[in-house]
Amino acid sequence: MRIHPTAIVSKKSKVSEDTVVGPYSIIDDNVTIGSRSTLGAFCVIEGNTKIGKNCQVFTGAVLGSTPQDLKYKGDKSSLEIGDNNIIREYCTFNPGTEDGGKTLVGNNNLFMAYAHVAHDCVVGNNCIIANNGTLAGHVTVEDNVVIGGFGGIHQFVRIGKLAIVGGCSKVVQDIPPYAICDGHPARLYGLNLVGLERNKISKAAIRELKVAFRLLFNSRLTLKNALKQLQAKVNHCPEVACLMDFIKCESSRGIARSCRSKLRSQE
């Protein structure tokens, strides 16, 4: 273990022998850090926090500090971070609020400088949250999502897999899988075609998704009626089935609509 002389590492923590801890960093009692992970200077890792293998935490990051939630009364909650994550300068991740609550971060994610992950969030795998991207409490971000710089995600919002959120967007409703969204408030601008192609989604599936998006978000039908029409068709590809399942799931915030849609109803 390579620990800088100025770092403070609790003897009660569980830090792998090959972990690198930079100058003036602090690791609290109940912290676990996996093999081959590195911490830069002035990092603070506290609370019931677990960091996986091969993670890189850069200067000034604060992980596991008390959630910024007035409901928090000192209950035992936790923060769990998976493997191969890059957490850049001055990022802040909070644990859950209530007793047993968790904030969960998957694998292979990039959090650019000053990104914030609030209490009780769930972040999947292979996501990118750019500089100053902010997740409020109870946000769910599925796999392969990109959130642009200064993007603000409202509490309880869901971001579907392979979606991309434009920089400086104000996201107050759920963003469906495979979508591009942008604006104040964020609206859908179509399919994330570049992301679909990079993830080797077949051309046939992309064609089906185009039809589904057109019906769901750019027709004059309400979302409920459009979904019924889409469900009536058989043999959906897995991607369209994923889109339909996302929309059918209970939502606290409702589903964002197209920038071209004149309908406001989410019924």
Describe the secondary-structure layout.
Elements: E1 2-3, E2 8-9, E3 14-15, E4 20-21, E5 26-27, E6 32-33, E7 38-39, E8 44-45, E9 48-51, E10 56-57, E11 62-63, E12 78-81, E13 86-87, E14 92-93, E15 102-105, E16 110-111, E17 116-117, E18 122-123, E19 128-129, E20 134-135, E21 140-141, E22 146-147, E23 152-153, E24 158-159, E25 164-165, E26 170-171, E27 179-183, E28 186-191, H1 193-198, H2 203-217, H3 223-232, H4 238-248
Parallel strand pairs: 1-4, 2-5, 3-6, 4-7, 5-8, 6-9, 7-10, 8-11, 9-12, 10-13, 11-14, 12-15, 13-16, 14-17, 15-18, 16-19, 17-20, 18-21, 19-22, 20-23, 21-24, 22-25, 23-26, 25-27
Antiparallel strand pairs: 27-28
Helix pairs in contact: 2-3
**Total beta-strand segments:** 28
Major sheet strand order: 1-4-7-10-13-16-19-22-25-27-28
Distance between the termini: 57 Å
Per the CATH scheme, the topology name of the largest domain is UDP N-Acetylglucosamine Acyltransferase, domain 1
CATH superfamily of the largest domain: Hexapeptide repeat proteins
- Output the radius of gyration: 20 Å
The CATH architecture of the largest domain is: 3 Solenoid
* Number of helical segments with 4 or more residues: 4
Fraction of residues in β-strands: 25-35%
* Sheet/helix structural class: alpha/beta
Residue runs with pLDDT of under 50 for 5 or more positions:
262-267
User: Considering DSSP H and I runs of 4 or more, what fraction of the residues is helical?
Assistant: 10-25%
Largest sheet features: 11 strands, mixed
Number of domains: 2
Shape type: elongated
What is the typical, i.e. mean, pLDDT?
A: 95
Briefly, what CATH class of the largest domain?
Mainly Beta
